[in-house]
Amino acid sequence: MLDQLSILLIGLIPPLLLAVSAWAISLRLKDVSIVDSFWSILIASAGFAYAMTAAWWGWRDIVILTLAATWAGRLAAHITVRGMGEPEDRRYRAIRERNQPNFEFKSLYLVFLLQAVLAWIVSFALFGALGSSNASLSLDMFATALVVIGIAIQAVADWQLEQFKESPNSKNDVLDSGLWRYSRHPNYFGEFLIWWGFFIFSASTGVWWTVVSPLLMTVLLMRVSGVTLLESDIKSRRPGYAEYVKKTNAFFPWFPKTSRDTA
Prior knowledge:
By secondary structure, the protein is an all-alpha fold. 70% of the residues lie in helices and 0% in strands.
């Protein structure tokens, strides 16, 4: 019978192997931003590895894995399609420029292995959620609702953004309709709900220490690779964004502020 640490370490193997494979592809394409397409798959792969070690399977394991696969597959497909025919993302170009010479090899640990380890930590919520026959039905129902709502919000927000980008003036305009009327980053808020939902599945079985998973994801979304990074220079690129910031919450959805509120 494997102990918990052994199972956790087994869960690290698929993300590492996938990350190395993605790195090898990036060398051929000369584009490390493909790691974004692999991000959700790295996390889900760890979850499926945990499931394979479980001594007991039930309906809730199937539900959790189905939700994880749905989230991962949709997000990976969306990012891949969005990036087709596009040059390397400007965020990764900046990393490339800062880490010359030999960035091609440095990128293995600076980009790909780092994201594999982060994905593994995020997957801890799946580790705690799977393979237990002792769970709270009410918490499981709440967790399912959170994850489903999160996936729906993220999918709708991504679709609305892609529709906006197809408009002729999208490079200068600001998307402030639909879900983007209530949050400047509704897709990230959807991701936030998803990972707190998976943690509640874990808490339902009594594995509370996996709260590190949604906490890390929240920090990444709000302070590292999400809101803060994307908004670092967007005001200079989109003249109307400063006004959008004044009236619209950055992350948590709420009704737009009126001119009186922002005065």
